[in-house]
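Key result, reporting period 2: structure in, sequence out.
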């Protein structure tokens, strides 16, 4: 339906449902269009995604278009919205309605089925969840013996590249003398992807099961490798227990460095450009901890890209986009690796594009390969491991 059409039909039922799911958030919007101008789709497509028009449709209770599924929930638009509209939340709500109407795009139902059968989005057997750690002798978490639970997450459990990040973090924890355990094959999913693709009822079901596991295992301090897991545990989960404290691993490393438990002492002549993950920088206003960690590493010089901190540029992997096809030439990560290359040209030692998120890692490395670049992409945990 075209908003320019002289006649269109308002759907009261849809409008009521949208109001119920969004808490009337869209009413705050005064149609300035800043969201459309800041959305990164404008950088990779001739035509931007008209976020403003989406919000207008929500205000009026009109059908939305398939572009609904393009949103990576990166929250760039929210950061600039003068009315503080929770735009990513509205997109999630619209997706929830699309699920109710069986209108989700191909590819997403299989993601949910995989979670249902396998407890992971990677269509891998749950029994293999701890295979990445088979030679690392990591104990099963015991609250009597361990300071923290290392929440590994699906990507670091099953993706070959991200498994190396998990192994590096284990090395770093051991160097700092931290006592820790994992849940191994019993590690439950966080459900972050399910929340982002808008299937709220399934997310609630998964979250309830995961909370039960955390309660039974006595989990208090949880360190997550992925900002998506950290975000969902911190901001979207029901009550777990008194004292339950989820942290992203960079926040924990910053603490270990500050209290002197972690002492990096091998200089690494490197220039590093840091890709702030959206789910750290914008959804959780955390831009400081990763930089404090990098600043504490001997021989590391941090340089900032054109988009940095809360103005970071999304890698394109959030909001379920990891599981949907993105046309070549339309990947945000292509723009991002070029930005990194630009600020790293003057590097005299090793030039590294750093991140602290498994989705960023996968998207950025794909872009580096597709563009035949020589740029090295590393996770902060890997960089720290090189200095101990
Ligand atoms: S930036 Fe905010 S107020 Fe402006 S059009 Fe977008 S949602 Fe509405
Ligand atoms: S959350 Fe990100 S991708 Fe989604 S509409 Fe806003 S700026 Fe665009």
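The corresponding designed sequence is given below.
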């Amino acid at each position: 339906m075209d908003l320019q059409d002289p006649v269109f039909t308002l759907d009261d039922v849809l409008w009521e449902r949208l109001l119920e799911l969004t808490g009337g958030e869209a009413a705050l919007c005064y149609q300035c269009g800043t969201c459309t101008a800041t959305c990164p789709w404008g950088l990779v497509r001739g035509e931007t995604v008209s976020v403003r028009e989406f919000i207008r449709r929500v205000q009026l209770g009109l059908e939305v278009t398939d572009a609904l599924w393009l949103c990576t929930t990166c929250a760039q638009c929210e950061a600039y919205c003068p009315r503080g509209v929770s735009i990513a939340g509205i997109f999630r709500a619209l997706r929830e309605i699309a699920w109710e109407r069986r209108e989700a795009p191909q590819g997403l139902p299989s993601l949910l089925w995989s979670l249902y059968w396998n407890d992971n989005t990677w269509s891998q057997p749950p029994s293999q969840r701890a295979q990445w750690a088979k030679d690392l002798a990591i104990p099963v978490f015991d609250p009597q013996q361990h300071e923290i639970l290392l929440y590994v997450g699906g990507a670091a459990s099953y993706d070959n590249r991200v498994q190396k990040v998990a192994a590096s973090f284990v090395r770093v924890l051991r160097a700092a003398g931290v006592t820790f355990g994992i849940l191994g094959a019993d590690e439950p999913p966080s459900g972050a992807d399910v929340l982002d693709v808008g299937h709220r009822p399934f997310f609630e079901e998964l979250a309830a099961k995961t909370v039960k596991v955390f309660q039974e295992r006595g989990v208090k301090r949880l360190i997550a490798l992925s900002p998506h897991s950290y975000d969902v545990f911190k901001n979207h989960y029901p009550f777990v227990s008194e004292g339950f404290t989820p942290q992203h691993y960079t926040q924990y490393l910053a603490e270990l460095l500050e209290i002197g438990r972690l002492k990096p002492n091998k200089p690494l002549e490197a220039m590093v450009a840091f890709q702030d993950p959206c789910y750290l920088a914008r959804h959780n206003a955390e831009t400081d901890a990763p930089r404090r960690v990098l600043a504490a590493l001997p021989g590391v010089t941090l340089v900032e890209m054109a988009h940095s901190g809360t103005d970071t540029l999304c890698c394109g992997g959030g909001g379920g986009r990891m599981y949907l096809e993105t046309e070549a030439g339309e990947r945000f990560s292509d723009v991002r690796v070029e930005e990194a290359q630009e600020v790293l040209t003057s590097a005299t030692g090793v030039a590294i594009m750093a991140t602290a998120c498994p989705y960023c890692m996968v998207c950025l490395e794909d872009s580096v390969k597709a563009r035949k670049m020589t740029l090295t992409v590393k996770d902060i945990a890997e960089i720290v491991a090189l200095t101990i």
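The mean pLDDT is 93. The two ends are 59 Å apart (CA to CA). This case is discussed further under Risks and Mitigation.
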